[in-house]
């Protein structure tokens, strides 16, 4: 393929890195505003408690303290909203239980916010927090998801009479019962999807200012989209017109879904700024991040597959319990329903019966984390396929091939309602097996045994849904100096949007890559934007950027043709000039801008709508070695072959794949948020919460085998979450394969820490 130097398909290095490497990044906490005060949240030391704030006088008397806010002071503000309701089998929408800006007499998880102190600096605010007199009445708490719905357990919301947040079903239970009744074999498996914390590099922060003359707010905060945050703050919490809230996001040090949401601290700094008529800032500590920012995953799944005599799946049944935490977070209920939507994976499963019972527990709320439901779905079905292969006595590769949706079956409607447009699943499976040396595994196994190591190989063939139907407006403008500026409402969190979007524009306009300016993260510059999440920025945003770039190119040709007295079709755009083809008659872009009759002649706006979602897919093959003396697991070989439709930038893509694998493997092997029985967080710091490091990982081998999407006009499917989705089941399948070969161990729950693996080996040997 002939790829332009900086066009779509080129391995252009990230434009953003120059300023970041020079220390010129502008993160929220880098912002310095004159006379800014500092806020600090007093958080509940109990997982469940009734409380009364007896007195704030001593805190207010402390020199340097300006304000103490309690629930009474913010009673006029709305709760932090849950924006996703689920329709239950009886047709009702579940009741919402949302987080108040400050707790009203009851704290429901460790770290729940009960008061907000504003002082000259953080240190004074922390000292003042010790002086606030609070009468705590600790209550029984419940944090165990497995028993959260049992009779007699402590309730998070007593007025509900149950910890059940909602009930959701999908599929056809009667047809599934019939399939299971006639099955040749049935395989059952229960899996735990462990709770995890996103631990992005940049903790959340906020700086708020209030303009009394216009009665408007300015909030700086890291986000995954300023427009949704503005709307939640304005409409749901402050109940004012959105035009009175401006939200600005600069550089963002990682998001992973967790920075998509509006949190109570943003409303608190805004309200404090309004009351004091002074800027107010707040910065989360790492421990506060662990306690207060939405967690990910946390579900228990009991599943069964029915097979006929030829090893074809005839039905699937799933019973899922999903933890919502103490409150319904912004999109929390959507996460388990997304798992149900993708339950059948890449397989031709004719009937499905999927039931979700969502539960409240006295824990931090759970919401989207990289993949948001799709990793849970892939983990379940891919673990099930390996377990079924062992039960049926066939290879996991062969069982997958028997049950794959075949290319001739597309477009394919799943039992959960997804419409897969294209797919060649066996193609990337075969390629991944070849590249991984799958057929030579037995020799490597024997060599590992000779060294006293336990070796296993595992795989996953996944499909995910992303780039959901919708649009993303893009405004592309030619400036007077000949540069081009793009305004778009997505938000980079480190993915390289400025680089990728510039490639779309460079393809159309013929301008130096570095003369394209990408503007994101300011509600004052663009009235609407969908933000970043679900791998939508490039598949959806890129559509509009490409169209707007094409429209602006036509406008430039029209202006240049008038000035050069030539037909527009005879004008070519190269290296920042408009030139009559085959001549030396040119007009540079700055001259084009000066020649324009109106600003509209230099602006192109596109808002291209995509009607169907896209479905990236691929195969991961992983080999691990386990030291039976310590239980330590080492990933020794990792091969991925993915189908992303069309690649915009191979270098950026590789970064997404590497990061995604590490996050997925981290959940499989080391990560996990843990509470004591009374609800205390046991993994609130990096002393106790393990994250994978570079030296924990091998060199990944990655390539693509792309089939362009028919749902996306550019053929792009998206890639931001895919590696996390495929990695977790592949790693765990490899671990269990190793343990089964050596010790007959058939199941193990994540994370497969050295202690857990060692204990499983000891138990197997003793048995």
Which second-level CATH architecture of the largest domain applies?
A: 2-Layer Sandwich
Tally of separate helices? 18
Report the top-level CATH class of the largest domain.
Alpha Beta
Name the beta content range.
Answer: 15-25%
Ends distance:
59 Å
CATH superfamily of the largest domain: Aldehyde oxidase/xanthine dehydrogenase, molybdopterin binding domain
What's the overall geometry?
globular
Q: Which consecutive residue ranges, at least 5 long each, have pLDDT under 50?
A: none
Strand runs, count: 30
Largest sheet: 7 strands, mixed
Mean pLDDT over all positions: 97
Question: What is the helix fraction of residues, given as a range?
Answer: 25-40%
Structural account:
This protein is of the alpha+beta class and 767 residues long. The chain has three domains: 17-25 and 470-610, Aldehyde Oxidoreductase, domain 4; 31-139 and 199-292, Aldehyde oxidase/xanthine dehydrogenase, a/b hammerhead (Aldehyde Oxidoreductase, domain 3), CATH 3.90.1170.50; 369-467 and 612-766, Aldehyde oxidase/xanthine dehydrogenase, molybdopterin binding domain (Aldehyde Oxidoreductase, domain 4). Helix 16 (650-669) links the parallel strand 29 (633-643) and strand 30. The protein is globular, with a radius of gyration of 27 Å. The mean pLDDT is 97.
